[in-house]
Specification:
With 360 residues, the protein is an alpha/beta fold. The chain folds into 2 domains: 145 residues, Rossmann fold (3-Layer(aba) Sandwich); 187 residues, Dehydroquinate synthase-like, alpha domain. Helix content is 52%, strand content 11%. The strands form 2 sheets. It has a 6-stranded parallel sheet, with helices on both faces. It has a two-stranded antiparallel ribbon with strand order 6-7. The longest helix has 23 residues.
């Protein structure tokens, strides 16, 4: 029998973003643009999302003004300026971000700096569309912040858009999402709501990614992964991320490592360090992953999914990690355990070489 539940003090902010979820919901995009009163929109995407963006432009005559297909990982400053120039030249009054974190990150930068509201159409599992966190990289440093201005007016989740996402991209994107939920479980501003969402999200995503790896066209696995990504994004948007995200931002900004694979490789090692001081988070992750040692469970999941085993495989080396350590120590995040050079070495060394995470 469950004993009495006595939650600590908590605050859950209200979110203004409207969410549309389901197979075929992309057909609602035109009506959503009309109902929200957004002006003519510039479609934002990477080169891999170009075909979908041009199809949407053709399907929404009069609602769009063109396609900017140069969105890039880590949102380089020069890309933001190029997109802003294009939006001004075409008379755009809003944006539609089509794709993953690169396109959505660019839309956030334009919302923040050019006052262009946007609708997000995610095609990956990054979850960044549900957050007020923005990031722009300039001169090798990724600057991040929070602003309610960067939240989308609406998000259209259509699982059908993720079916063509390659398996290797799907699994790293989903593991990136798991990182959001995992760190939410020991965030200083966590709440009963985020605890419930995080536990649900980690378990659903882990099972969905195994299903996608077995059959990339399985509609149920794709829908489950997108549902879990939404929950992970909510966790990211409602809590403060800790050391893991700080390290990933530093690795991406300094070494230009791929965003989602970096999260996937690093997460077992940061959790091995942090969960020693976060027993409740460990308990929830143990239940979600069905493994007595969650860091090892995630590391084994990575191996089953075939993701890169080490930061070295992604392009890191010992010399590059020196700058990452300095950036991390210069601007510390809230974290369950104090962080010093020895701690970072204990995390980054096995991650660099592909070793197993430290066990509890």
């Amino acid at each position: 029998m469950r004993g009495p539940f006595a939650p600590s003090d908590f605050t859950v902010p209200a979110l203004a973003t409207r969410v549309l979820f389901g197979h075929g919901r992309l057909a609602s995009l035109g009506a959503e643009l009309r109902d929200t009163g957004l002006g003519p929109a510039l479609l934002l995407c990477t080169d891999s999302g170009r075909d979908l963006a041009h199809r949407l432009a053709a399907d929404l005559p009069g609602a769009t003004v063109g396609v900017f297909d140069q969105a890039r990982m880590h949102v380089p400053r020069q890309t933001v300026e190029a997109a802003r120039t294009t939006a001004t030249a075409l008379g755009a009054e809003a944006c539609i971000a089509v794709g993953g974190g690169s396109a959505i990150g660019l839309a956030k930068a334009l919302a923040l700096e050019a006052d262009l509201p946007y609708v997000a159409v995610p095609t990956t599992y990054s979850g960044s569309e549900m957050t007020a966190v923005w990031g722009v990289t300039e001169d090798g440093t990724k600057t991040t912040g929070r602003s309610e201005r960067v939240r989308p007016v609406a998000v259209v989740y259509d699982p059908g858009l993720t079916v063509s996402l390659p398996v290797e991209v799907s699994v790293t994107s989903g593991l990136n999402a798991i990182a959001h939920a995992a760190e939410a479980l020991y965030a200083p501003d966590r709440s009963p709501l985020t605890d419930l969402m995080a536990g649900e999200a980690v378990g659903v995503m882990a099972e969905a990614l195994l299903g996608i790896a077995a059959d990339p066209t399985d509609a149920n696995s794709r829908a489950s992964a997108l549902y879990a990504a939404w929950l992970c994004g909510m966790c990211l948007g409602l809590t403060t991320m800790s050391l893991h995200h700080k390290l990933c931002h530093a690795l991406g900004g300094s070494l230009d490592l791929p965003h989602a694979p970096t999260h996937a490789v690093l997460l077992p090692h940061t959790l091995a360090f942090n969960l020693a001081a976060a027993p409740m988070a460990r308990s929830r992750l143990t239940q979600a992953l069905r493994h007595e040692d969650p860091p090892t469970g995630l590391w084994e999941l990575n191996q089953r999914l075939g993701v890169p085993a080490s930061l070295r495989e992604l392009g890191a080396d010992e010399a590059g990690l020196t700058a990452v350590v300095e950036q991390t120590l210069a601007v510390p995040y809230a974290n369950p355990r104090p962080v010093d050079r020895d701690a970072l070495d204990a995390i980054l060394t096995p991650a660099l070489h592909g070793g197993a995470p430290a066990t509890a």
